[in-house]
Amino acid sequence: MDPRELLCDVMKTLHDRGLLNVKGGNASIRGKGNYMWITPSKEPKHRLCPDDIILMYFDGRYFGHSPPSIESKMHLYIYKTYSWVNAVVHAHSPLTTLVFDLGLDVNVSDFVESMVSMPCVGVVDRLPPGSDELARSVRDAVGKCPVVALRGHGVVSVSKDIYSALNAVEALEDLSKAILFKNTFRKLT
Ligand SMILES: [Zn+2]
């Protein structure tokens, strides 16, 4: 499947599942050379078409109708550092963000979906969206855990293929929902 079609499908899936707003989130796929395919910064993410996807070289040059995502540095740093990473997904998962902001315990082995989807979850402190600091912190964190929660912001997942990265984002959100229900139920009983 064309990587541009895959990116459109992934962004629509994230929006349909309530894991990003129409102007939020981004995703990319490594190309067969020194470049990546990445989502644009301005187009509504739930109805992207393949022509909207940006081709961006690792030296920063890009081609497309719109500028690339404001987090494009983060994607570039990750591909340049980790040769095994072929896809990056960044969502604004609301329950995942809440669980990490509340400082609740997150154990991926508590839930089969998360247990098979990720070995661990890293955490990055609050940093400005689109900043070099955030890009560098996420790049360092995914070297330890392929799924990283960004405090007050969302989640980044990296993998060999885009659907594994998407699956981990979904699994972490479902685990977060279970953690929140469990904590609420415990307080009520
Ligand atoms: Zn974001």
State the gist of this model:
This protein is an alpha+beta fold. It is built from six helices and eight strands.
Describe this structure in words.
Helix 5 links the parallel strand 6 and strand 7. 41% of the residues lie in helices and 17% in strands. The chain has an eight-stranded mixed beta sheet, with helices on both faces. The chain has a single domain, classed as 3-Layer(aba) Sandwich (L-fuculose-1-phosphate Aldolase), CATH 3.40.225.10. It is an alpha+beta fold. The model has no long low-confidence stretch (mean pLDDT 96). The protein binds zinc ion. The site of zinc ion has 5 residues, from loops.
Based on the model shown, name its key terms.
binds zinc ion; 17% strand; 189 residues; alpha+beta; globular; 41% helix; eight-stranded mixed beta sheet; single chain; L-fuculose-1-phosphate Aldolase
CATH architecture: 3-Layer(aba) Sandwich
The backbone outline, from C-alpha atoms, is globular
Distance between the termini: 50 Å
Low-confidence stretches: none
| Gyration radius over CA | 16 Å
Number of strand elements? 8
Give me the strand/helix succession: HEEEEHEHHEHEEH
Bound molecules: zinc ion
Order of adjacent strands in the largest pleated sheet: 4-3-2-1-5-8-7-6
Report strand %: 15-25%
Whole-number tally of structural domains: 1
| CATH hierarchy, class | Alpha Beta
Structural class: alpha+beta
User: Total helix count?
Assistant: 6
Biggest sheet character: 8 strands, mixed
Mean pLDDT value: 96
CATH topology: L-fuculose-1-phosphate Aldolase
**CATH superfamily heading:** Class II aldolase/adducin N-terminal domain
Bin the helical content.
40-55%
